[in-house]
Write a structure and sequence with these properties.
The protein has 102 residues and is mainly alpha-helical. It has one domain (16-95). The protein has three helices and two strands, in the order αααββ. It has helices at residues 15-20, 25-41, 51-77, and strands at residues 81-82, 94-95. The chain has a two-stranded antiparallel ribbon with strand order 1-2. It is elongated. The termini are far apart. The relative contact order is 0.16.
């Protein structure tokens, strides 16, 4: 089975950490959700229906779910919360409660 962390992913900074550093909290959540969906939607399509390829797609989805949970817990500890407004778009998804400062 192909490695979960092949050499081409081993850099001084994880790619997702570099991407996240350039995004707002709402954009980060949208990015993570998109990555989860990407791996779920291509389940069994990239590399064929080989069981190892299918397992790899599911494991990649799980990694992004775990990364998103970790991120949400981190921003919650800093006082951020999910915005209950009915505005569309992920950039309006997460807000910092009034009176809270980093």
């Amino acid at each position: 089975m192909e490695s979960d962390n092949p050499n081409h992913y081993k850099k001084s900074i994880e790619t997702w950490d570099a991407i996240i550093s350039q995004l707002s909290p709402g954009e980060v959540v949208g990015y993570m959700k998109g990555c989860v969906a990407k791996h779920l939607f291509r389940f069994g399509e990239k590399g064929g229906r080989d069981i190892d390829k299918c397992l790899m797609d599911m494991k990649k989805s799980l990694k992004y779910i775990e990364k998103c949970i970790e991120y949400l817990e981190k921003i919650k500890s800093k006082g951020f919360d999910i915005n209950n407004q009915n505005e569309s778009g992920v950039t309006n998804l997460i807000v910092k409660p009034k009176g809270k400062h980093e």
